[in-house]
Structures are given as structure tokens and as C-alpha cells.
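Attaching the record inline, Q. Sequence:
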Amino acid sequence: MLKPEILLPWFFLLLLAPELRFSRADIGTASQYTPPYIPTACYGSDMSQFPTSSLFAAAGEGIWDNGAACGRQYLVKCISAAVPQTCVQGQTIQVKIVDRALTSVSPPSRAGSSLVLSNIAFETIAKNAVPFLNVEFQQ
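Structure, as predicted:
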């Protein structure tokens, strides 16, 4: 017969399993920048670099990867901000990296961000005017 001390950990694991969430996403900050967006570090003055949705971003130094970030797509979700209820609940966007935040023509609203979103991308996931958001992002 199985002993209770063997069964007890398995019982708790079964109870807690629905609450466990495994994510491959990173947590960071997102700020915004406004036009002019060109020239960019990735594609220069080529206007075709921008998605028709206008959901694009400049990569912060943590994901720039010596230019390898150019063209990468990231799913971005707002998780919190300094002003309560800023995040648009349940809204996740996909952005394309077209620039390097450190050298972008327009300065970001906050230096040192993981991602610097186009103003349309930023306003899609945030309701209030704040300098930055805490975000979850995943390639």
C-alpha cells in the first residue's frame, strides 16, 4: 500500500497544476516614439519597411543583438503602468523591429526601454498618456 507521505505531494501538485503558468516571454519596459521614424538603423529610408498596421518598434540594447533584431516580430502585452488601469486588458500586439532605440531619429519617451513602440502601437495597448509601460514580450 502507498504511504500518505508519498501521495501527499502528488495530490497538491494536481490541485495546483491549473494555477501554474509556464511562459517563455520576457518582462521589460516599453516606451514610445513619434515621427519622423526614418531613416532607421535597419532599413534606412525605405518606406516599405513599415507594416501597414503601423505596429512597429525600435529595439532596446537588450534585444538589439548587433542588428540581428532587424525584422524580428514580437508579441507585446501591457502588464502594468504607473497610472492604474492604463493597460488595455487582453490586448496583445505584434510589432516588427525596424530600428535601434539608441540611434533612432526621434528620442524615446523613456531611455533604456526594452522596446520603443511606434505611437500607434503604444496607444493600442495603453489607454493613458504615460512615459512607459511594463510589458511582457516574446519573439
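The chain is about 15% helix and 30% strand. Helices lie at 4-16, 61-64, 119-125.

More tomorrow.
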